[in-house]
Amino acid sequence: MAGGLFAISKKWFFTFDGYDEGLDVWGGEQYELSFKVWQCGGRIVDAPCSRIGHIYRKFNPFGAFGAGDYVSRNHKRVAETWMDEYKNFVYKRLPHMKNIQSGDLKKQIDIRNSLKCQSFKWFMENVAPDMINYYPPVIPPPYAYGEIRSVEANFCIDTKFRPSQSNFGLETCQSSNKDIGGEQNFELTWHKDIRPKSRNVCWDVSQSSPNSPVLLFECHGMHGNQEFKYNPKTLQIIHSISKLCLDSNKDRKEIYMNNCDIKMDSQKWQFEFFNLTMIQHDF
After folding, report:
1. pLDDT tens digits along 3-42
2. Contact present, 73 and 101 (Cβ < 8 Å)
3. Cα separation, 11 vs 187, whole angstroms
């Protein structure tokens, strides 16, 4: 959540000397203030009935076009001051930050020491123990990945680099013909969604009736319409909410969701690679 959506008392704000003055323009202050509050004896509470407006300008009013990558520099200052050994997970995810100069941190570290603030490990164990379920420090491997081939048609699913809110279907498999284009490399990710590799659009099913379409929508990682599972025994791709299975019409090269029937070859799909141990554990 954006830092501008919280209120704080002036007295408490200046107890820990306000914002880090070394943060440039914007970016990172929401993390810094949150860590300061939690680790130094405060807390953040939500008011469910509150209403806040946040109006963005259509232009950059700060005049910081020559400041370089100030957002990454800000984030590094926060990580170095407050995250202790957990900062290494940040650098693994964003290795370019390791070589960024964060500037003098003595004042911020002195403030942390003078307030006898808790460690970031304490924060992770006591304030946000479930965070790793949603934002794991190391991204888990996918449940399955590679081409998704129809057993009946011997075609592969192809999203053709289409944008959000587009449909997609079957095409000749690229592994069978290296000269054709397309987008046939998919991942059943740890979010349990299916997406083209290296893109942030996911398969999405918003209806629960037979012949429901499968569209591409921006990935949200919150399961629901975008949660799927793969059964390596029956070779079915199942939509978790509707309990429908991915089906196909080989003549029209279409895919859609339908009532599951293990006798139908049109509902059988071969992932190029799958992690049986992970699938058996989580599904």
Report:
1. 667 888 898 899 888 999 999 888 899 899 999 999 999 9
2. yes
3. 50
pLDDT of residue 248: 97
Q: Tokens 């200046």 map to which residue? A: 14
Please check whether residue 260 is in contact with residue 267, taking contact to mean a CB–CB distance below 8 angstroms: yes
CB neighbours of residue 211 within 10 Å: 13
Phi, psi of 246 (to 5 degrees): -70, 125
CA 188 to chain centre: 13
Would you tell me how many other CB atoms lie within 10 Å of the CB of residue 186? Answer: 24
Question: What are the DSSP calls for 82-115, one per residue?
Answer: H-GGGHHHHHHHSGGGGGS-----HHHHHHHHHT
Residue 179 burial (CB < 10 Å; 0-12/13-18/19+)? exposed
pLDDT by residue (tens digit) across 154-172? 999 999 999 999 999 999 9
Separation of first and last alpha carbons in the chain: 31
Half-sphere exposure of 172 (CA within 13 A, CB side): 7
Place of tokens 């959506």: 5
The alpha carbons of the chain give a radius of gyration, in whole angstroms, of 24
Q: Give the whole-angstrom CA distance, residue 106 versus residue 273.
A: 50
> How far apart, in whole angstroms, are the C-alpha atoms of residue 121 and residue 125?
6
